[in-house]
Design a protein that fits this description.
The complex is a heterodimer of chains A (290) and B (907). Chain A has 290 residues and is α/β, with parallel strands linked by helices. Chain A has eleven helices and 13 strands. In chain A, helix 2 (41-59) links the parallel strand 1 and strand 2 (66-71). The mean pLDDT of chain B is 85. Classes of the chains: A alpha/beta (290), B mainly alpha (907).
């Protein structure tokens, strides 16, 4: 027969184990959605795993408590965000403005890519074909942010002038193909981000094209929490971890694999300005902006 | 005391002028005899101090090394000729042989043995990179096997498409290697298209060169076949080393002339080519020829201008000739004195004669001007001469002594050329003074007496010329008419020009001193801009190869050093790892099997392969552009365009070409077999060693006594002062014994600029001291200096406004202007003291007249240099023209009006 203190010890150990198991948070998922960017979920997996390891280490989360998944399409990103285990997301601002409300995305940080924290979009068309926004009637406007037409009409091209009703805004992952069509004289205007615009001159048909409009500086991409799936403490620890991620060699390497440099605190003013412009575009042409 | 002394001297001279003239002529004879022994040293190294370590190192290097100071010939096809690189190379070889036949030539370096390099190229690649490349190939076990299945071009297209798709799925980050690979793909597609239209011609183009050469691609050193060439290969260079190390002008002229003659001889036998020369010997010879031509031209202009001026302004024209005769005697004495002072003249000091002409003429103008105003031979000439020298003698003496003192102060400059010019010119000024105080009055007395006794009509003549009367009646009173307005305007102008002058720069680019269209400058600029063969670099020497590696390591840490050229470029880093890596490559190449036969051409199959390749390239280009990788997306788009053109060419090819394609593919396969054999042979070669280097490479990178050298090529233009300082310091950190033109250039610039301020300071102090001794009044000394001070500000501001910078040739203008410009103030203040209360107009009528004449003659003498095509000489002339003109203006306009406006003197 066991003595009472032995029973007590067994009970204490069992209690401690239960508590320990209860203290380990359930695995969380972060969705990185970048519509129009190259690659696919499978080929990006090693990079995402490296980022997840570095991020949890920086945040002080237990090993294996975060899974990161990449999706290069808007639809894929939406499907993944609908899953219950998704607690975090890194998305471009057009995606955030278009889908943030639906998934209760709360912006926390902003990213700094190799081209900076802000994005400047350039609209490129056949040389001499477009003199003003009104000349785009009957044209196709395409590019990476084309999945969010209100973002194109508002934050990107709003200052240039209102787009005519006949302009069609389309998303494409084949930006180069669209540029080829534009160079050939088709009624296609292509939106390029800053690195793409810088690369434009390297193309053999660059002489046939010209930049007809440029956006102001817009926020590029944001890190969001999804609903209240993270406690305030967890969210804060994770954000602090991301903010110092670039300081460790492993973190720097993980960021470089995603072509990122570091994370910054959110520029609320810039994001609010983009949101106001987006909302205005959406209200002024609700049927076309969607 | 000075007055008393001068009166006694004049009395003696005027008592027996013929004796004075005779003595002067005797002195001229003695001076000319002495002058015959003056040596003309034309070597540039003579300009540096004799103990200058930088110059010594450069001289030693020149004796050891064929390169930095060698003559360089640039060979190109004559305009209008159809470019033919092979013909140009053959001509370059013939020209090198022609040069080498000349007894003055030690050797000619114009190409490296490219075949030797290609045979040993694998050993020259870094062993770790070679290992990594082999690893990459071996990680893809199918690749070697797939090659044996490539039986036609369609197979080759599919193989490439599969590799591109593989790269995309691996999502590997592309780099420079990928960009280079895409460029080769573009070339390959272009060759494939050529093959479709004319298979025989395309195979012919491929087999015309050795397989290794074709495989090495179109890198500049390969494209030029080892010849020293511009990037476009249209101009080939030859570095010609001399047996003789004498860098005097006659030796260089003889050498360059001989090479020009050799080139001309070959041109008559083989026309259609053009040879130009550059490098230190050609530049020096051309510069000296330009200087000589300019000197004659500007001297003629100066003499004509001064003579016309003198004839215009002097009432008696003979006075102009007597003035020039006295000046000539003074200059002849100065020339003889050079023998006693330093015994030789160099490139800089040989310019002392024009300097003395410009300066010394003023010492005669003031007495003659006064002599004419005193009546000259309209009354007793001796009395008039006494009066003239009484009024001007002291001022002339003081101004000459101050000028000489300012010139002597130039001796403080460390740059030997300028310091010796200061000594020679300073003594020369004193001798010109003696001539104007002794010889000139004697000549005037003899001429005046003769004229007075024989020409009765002269006595009734007006003592002044028409031009003088204009000044006397209108000019001088007009100057002082609006004193306050003129004073205020002068102060505003001075403030503005002073502000403008604040950032006038010193340009150390000696090449800019020559006309930009000079042959040697044109060739050198082209060489620097269009090739990597800049002659302006520093050289370090090691005791052995290990020492050389150490120097290279140090150089690699220096951001101002772009690259190090040395024999290490032709030796493996470490023979053992290199041997092992090349051994692995050899076994890899042994495993490569080519198909035994080709497959008969199938147009449809070929077209389908091109479409598959196009699709793969498009996907890759899209991914690259989306990621912002323009450096890849651009070439990939070119490759895509290549596939479009290729499929178009296949579609458009007329029927019946299949037989030619089959034959072409068979020849292509045979060529591939030969290329594989050549690669295997190259992979079987022994690593190169110092002992097995070809003679051309050995001669280029080893000193005559067998020590290895490294050429430290700068990242930027060595004629930028700040960069030059950093580059020279970096070279010294690589080796304290580093030598070369850039280091000597920097040392020369430092010597010139450091002594510059010392000489200006010393000159100014001496001038003030002499004036204080003469006037015994601080106020009068300050007034005499004021026009010079203002004139200097005006000159510097004027130079800045017209974009003139200081350079090696015109920097001496500042101490020169101190010497020349002080005269005006001295004369003016002397006259003011003499005239007392008679007013400024009276002072200007007499002394102002002489100052204008002297100023104009000096400006004509110096200003003639502004017409030179030699930019250094022209900039010196222009600076002096501005400076002398400014000092005249400040003396006869600004100072009088300032004094009147301040109430110090009446109008």
């Amino acid at each position: 027969m066991r003595r009472p203190y032995e029973l007590l010890l067994v009970g204490a150990v069992a209690l401690a184990m239960t508590a320990a198991v209860a203290a380990v948070p359930p695995p969380r998922t972060m969705v990185i959605c970048a519509p129009g960017f190259p690659g696919d979920t499978e080929s990006a997996r090693p990079t995402m795993e490296a980022f997840a390891r570095a991020a949890v280490e920086a945040a002080g989360w237990p090993d294996g408590s975060l899974a990161v998944v990449y999706d290069p399409s808007e639809e894929g990103g939406i499907d993944r965000l609908a899953a219950e285990d998704v607690a975090l997301a890194i998305v471009p601002v057009p995606f955030f403005l278009q889908n943030g409300e639906r998934f209760d995305l709360k912006p926390a940080l902003q990213i700094e890519s190799e081209s900076g924290t802000e994005e400047v979009w350039s609209l490129v068309a056949h040389r001499g074909a477009v003199a003003s926004a009104s000349a785009l009637d009957g044209w196709e406007i395409t590019g990476r942010p084309g999945y969010a037409p209100a973002f194109v009409r508002g934050p990107i091209l709003g200052e240039w002038g209102p787009l005519p009703a006949g302009a069609r805004i389309m998303a494409t992952a084949s930006v180069l193909g669209a540029l080829r069509r534009a160079a050939a004289g088709e009624k296609v205007a292509v939106l390029l981000d800053a690195p793409q615009a810088a690369s434009l001159s390297s193309l053999p048909f660059a002489a046939e094209l010209e930049v007809v409009a440029r956006s102001g500086r817009l926020p590029g991409g944001v890190v969001c929490t999804v609903g209240d799936r993270l406690s305030a403490g967890e969210a804060d620890a994770f954000q602090q971890g991301l903010l110092r991620l670039h300081r460790s060699p492993a973190g720097e390497e993980a960021l470089a694999g995603m072509r990122l440099k570091r994370f910054h605190k959110l520029d609320d003013k810039a994001l609010d300005a983009a949101r106001r412009s987006y909302d205005a575009a959406k209200e002024s042409a609700p049927d076309r902006a969607q | 005391m000075l007055h008393q002394l001068l009166i006694r001297i004049q009395s003696g001279v005027l008592a027996s002028p013929r004796r004075v003239i005779l003595a002067s002529l005797l002195a001229v004879a003695v001076a000319l005899v002495l002058g015959l022994g003056v040596e003309f040293r034309t070597s540039r190294s003579e300009l540096a101090p004799p103990d200058d370590p930088d110059q010594r190192r450069l001289d030693e290097l020149n004796q050891q090394f064929l390169g930095a100071m060698a003559l360089i010939a640039a060979v190109e096809e004559a305009p209008g000729q159809e470019p033919d690189p092979d013909r140009l190379r053959a001509y370059a070889d013939a020209l090198a042989l022609e040069f080498e036949r000349d007894p003055l030539v030690e050797r000619v370096f114009h190409r490296i043995d490219i075949d030797w390099i290609l045979q040993r190229g694998f050993h020259l690649a870094p062993a770790d990179e070679l290992e990594a490349a082999i690893d990459r190939i071996e990680r893809d076990p199918d690749l070697v096997g797939d090659l044996s299945g490539v039986r036609d071009l369609a197979d080759l297209n599919d193989l490439i498409a599969a590799r591109i798709e593989g790269g995309l799925t691996r999502a590997s980050l592309p780099g420079a290697e990928a960009a280079a690979g895409i460029e080769r793909l573009v070339d390959l597609l272009s060759a494939e298209r050529l093959f479709i239209t004319s298979p025989a011609a395309s195979i012919e183009a491929l087999t015309r060169q050795a397989p290794l050469m074709a495989l090495a691609g179109d890198r500049p050193e390969i494209a030029s076949r080892g010849y020293l060439a511009t990037d476009d290969g249209r101009t080939l260079y030859q570095i010609i080393g001399r047996r003789d190390q004498d860098d005097s002008l006659p030796a260089l002229r003889k050498f360059v002339g001989a090479m020009r003659q050799r080139a001309a001889d070959l041109a008559t036998r083989t026309p259609g080519f053009r040879v130009s020369f550059t490098g230190e010997p050609a530049t020096t010879v051309e510069e000296m020829a330009i200087v000589r031509r300019d000197t004659w031209f500007t001297t003629c202009v100066a003499l004509a201008g001064v003579s016309i001026l003198a004839l215009l302004v002097f009432r008696w024209k003979m006075h102009a000739f007597l003035l020039l005769a006295a000046l000539a005697m003074g200059i002849a004495w100065a020339f003889g004195a050079v023998r006693l002072e330093i015994g030789y003249l160099n490139l800089i000091t040989s310019s002392f004669i024009p300097t003395l002409v410009g300066v010394g003429i003023a010492y005669g103008i003031h007495p003659i001007s006064e002599y004419e105003l005193e009546g000259a031979h309209t009354r007793d000439p001796i009395g008039a001469l006494r009066g003239a020298y009484h009024l001007t003698g002291a001022a002339v003496t003081v101004s000459a002594v101050t000028t000489a003192s300012a010139f002597f102060a130039i001796t403080l400059m460390e740059f030997r050329g300028f310091s010796e010019l200061g000594l020679v010119a300073g003594v020369g000024v004193l001798l010109c003074l003696i001539s104007s105080l002794l010889t000139l009055p004697a000549l005037l007395a003899v001429f005046g007496r003769r004229r007075h006794s024989r020409d009765r009509s002269a006595r009734a003549a007006s003592p002044t010329a028409t031009v003088d009367r204009l000044w006397d009646r209108h000019g001088a009173p007009m100057v002082c008419r609006f004193p306050r307005t003129v004073a205020i305007v002068a102060l505003v102008v001075t403030a503005f020009l002073g502000w403008s002058a604040r950032d006038i720069a010193f340009d150390i680019n000696v090449l800019k001193l020559l006309p930009s269209d000079a042959e040697s400058i044109r060739s050198q600029n082209r060489m620097v801009m269009e090739s990597n063969l800049s002659p302006a670099f520093n050289v370090v020497v090691a005791d052995d190869i290990e020492g050389l590696r150490l120097l290279r390591e140090r150089a690699a840490r220096e951001p101002t050093i772009d690259r190090v050229e040395s024999v290490l470029m032709f030796l493996p880093e470490d023979p053992q790892p290199s041997r092992e890596a090349v051994g692995r490559l050899r076994s890899l190449l042994e495993r490569v099997r080519l198909p035994a036969t080709t497959r008969p051409c199938d147009r449809e199959r070929w077209l389908a392969s091109v479409h598959r390749l196009q699709a793969a390239i498009e996907r890759s280009a899209e991914a690259s552009f989306a990621a912002g990788l323009g450096e890849l997306a651009g070439p990939l788009e070119q490759a895509r365009a290549g596939t479009v053109a290729l499929s178009g060419a296949i579609d458009a090819a007329p029927p019946g070409l299949e037989a030619d394609w089959d034959a072409g593919q068979a020849r292509l396969l045979a060529w591939a077999g030969r290329a594989l054999t050549a690669l295997r042979r190259a992979a079987s070669s022994d690593p190169p060693t110092v002992d097995t280097l070809p003679a051309g490479i050995h001669d280029r990178f080893f000193t005559r006594d067998g020590r290895p050298m490294a050429f430290l090529q700068p990242t930027e233009d060595v004629f930028e002062t700040e960069f030059l300082q950093e580059y020279a310091a970096a070279s010294r950190r690589v080796s304290p014994e580093a030598a070369g033109f850039p280091i000597v250039l920097l040392a020369m610039a430092r010597r010139i600029t450091s002594g510059f301020y010392a000489s200006i300071g010393a000159g100014a102090v001496l001038v003030v001291l002499i004036l204080l001794i003469d006037y015994r009044s601080l106020r009068h000394a300050a007034l005499a200096i004021l026009p010079l001070g203002l004139g200097m500000i005006w000159m510097l501001g004027g130079m800045r406004l017209i974009g003139l910078q200081f350079n090696f040739a015109n920097l001496v203008v500042v101490p020169l202007i101190i010497g020349v410009g002080i005269d005006n103030g001295v004369h003016l203040v002397h006259r003011m003291r003499h005239e007392g209360d008679r007013g400024m107009t009276m002072v200007l009528r007499h002394t102002g007249r002489a100052i204008i004449i002297a100023g104009l003659t000096t400006m004509t003498g110096f200003g003639s240099m502004a017409l030179a095509s030699h930019q250094g000489m022209a900039s010196l002339g222009l600076s002096l023209l501005i400076g002398v003109g400014a000092c005249v203006m400040t003396a006869i306009v600004v100072l009088p009006n300032l004094l009147i406006a301040a109430g110090r003197i009446k109008r």
